[in-house]
């Protein structure tokens, strides 16, 4: 098992398949993009499946989330999904995507065994989408969401980040739209993972801001009875349900004490936290013919050193060098 010194056990693995992306979201990367990893630096399909297999068979991982960059840019994605879902015990699998390309791949991913998707969409307005992402692909995301729902990759979850002066006023409209389309909406506080290191605590839309805006139109009832456990989102029933809305408040309402995640980057590094400043290299072990048990032990040691929390709301917080696109969501 992947246990740390604070008694937490990691059962959820986030796997980044690429650092590349076909959008240029202002809160993630500059307009010109970033220096992408070279092909030889990336894990191969076989290496990814082997590491996930070690995590599932030897380390107690029960859920696998494929991320990026944009994971749909990974050519071998359906094959990776098919091989991972054939593992014993079978992990639950999901995908976090910007939705571009999902219209043409949703059915194949479902056939490969993928259980569900999270799609990023911050606005219902095409002009604001173009401003936020620097690409005119709004309709492609809407089409991808519909295709995922039709393919049965449910519940389809929509992740939205609100930005002051751009889309901060859209919370109620986004929720009404999500309820009408049978999507589960989750708002995410903007996190300090932009490549430009321009994040400022006093310039973000907080969970309290989001909830206050939603309550101008909807009645929200807390879904959880007490602690939410390791779930990153606090969830509320919308107008007595069954529709729900979630808020992931990593900055103002951190959930580090119950975190159950471990992360594998596209170049084979283990990260104990999204905001970690240290990594453990598994790619080198793979390529030096280490055994599965040797790799598993290296992974265990990495997780044993996991810190108590990320400290995002602490004035002494230091942003990691890697941006979100290079870490994996």
Shape by Cα distribution: globular
Q: Average pLDDT across residues?
A: 90
Report the major sheet: 12 strands, mixed
Task: Indicate the CATH architecture.
Answer: Alpha-Beta Barrel
Order of helices and strands: EEEHEHEHEHHEHEHEEEEEEHHH
Gyration radius, rounded = 19 Å
Percent helix: 25-40%
Q: Catalogue the unreliable spans.
A: none
Q: How many E strands?
A: 14
The strand order across the widest sheet is 9-10-11-8-7-6-5-4-3-12-13-14
Instruction: Count up the domains.
Output: 1
Assembly type = single chain
Beta-strand content estimate: 15-25%
Keywords:
14 strands, two-stranded antiparallel sheet, 329 residues, alpha/beta, twelve-stranded mixed beta sheet
Short précis:
This protein is of the alpha/beta class and 329 residues long.
What does the secondary structure layout of this molecule look like, with pairings?
Layout: E1 2-3, E2 9-10, E3 12-16, H1 45-59, E4 63-67, H2 77-85, E5 92-97, H3 102-112, E6 116-120, H4 126-133, H5 138-151, E7 157-160, H6 171-180, E8 184-188, H7 207-214, E9 220-222, E10 234-238, E11 244-248, E12 261-264, E13 269-271, E14 280-281, H8 283-286, H9 292-304, H10 324-327
Parallel strand pairs: 3-4, 3-12, 4-5, 5-6, 6-7, 7-8, 8-11
Antiparallel strand pairs: 1-2, 9-10, 10-11, 12-13, 13-14
Helix pairs in contact: 1-2, 1-9, 2-3, 3-5
């Amino acid at each position: 098992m992947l246990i740390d010194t604070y008694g937490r056990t990691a059962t959820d693995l986030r796997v980044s398949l690429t650092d590349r992306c076909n959008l240029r979201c202002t809160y993630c990367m500059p307009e010109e993009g970033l220096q992408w990893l070279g092909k030889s630096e990336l894990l191969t399909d076989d290496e990814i499946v082997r590491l996930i297999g070690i995590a599932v068979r030897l380390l107690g991982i029960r859920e696998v989330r494929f991320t990026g960059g944009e994971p749909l840019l990974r050519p071998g994605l359906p094959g990776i999904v098919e091989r991972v879902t054939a593992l014993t015990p079978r992990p639950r699998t999901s995908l976090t995507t910007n939705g571009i390309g999902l219209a043409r791949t949703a059915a194949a991913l479902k056939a490969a065994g993928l259980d569900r998707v999270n799609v990023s969409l911050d606005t219902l307005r095409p002009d604001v989408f173009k401003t936020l992402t620097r690409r005119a692909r709004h309709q492609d995301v809407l089409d991808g969401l519909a295709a995922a729902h039709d393919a049965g990759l449910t519940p389809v979850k929509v992740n939205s980040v609100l930005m002051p002066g751009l889309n901060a006023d859209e919370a109620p409209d986004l929720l009404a739209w999500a309820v009408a389309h049978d999507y589960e909406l989750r708002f995410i506080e903007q996190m300090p993972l932009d490549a430009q290191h321009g994040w400022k605590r006093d310039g973000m839309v907080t969970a309290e801001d989001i909830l206050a805006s939603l309550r101008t139109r909807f009645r929200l009832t807390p879904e959880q009875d007490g602690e939410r456990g390791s779930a990153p989102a606090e969830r509320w029933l919308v107008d007595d349900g069954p529709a729900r809305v979630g808020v992931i408040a990593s900055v103002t309402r951190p959930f580090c004490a119950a975190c159950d995640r471990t992360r594998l980057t596209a170049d084979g590094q283990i990260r104990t936290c999204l905001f970690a400043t240290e990594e453990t290299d598994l790619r080198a072990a793979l390529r030096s013919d280490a055994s599965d048990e040797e790799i598993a032990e290296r992974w265990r040691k990495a997780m044993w050193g996991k810190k108590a929390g990320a400290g995002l709301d602490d004035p002494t917080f230091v942003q990691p060098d890697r941006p979100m696109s290079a870490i994996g969501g």
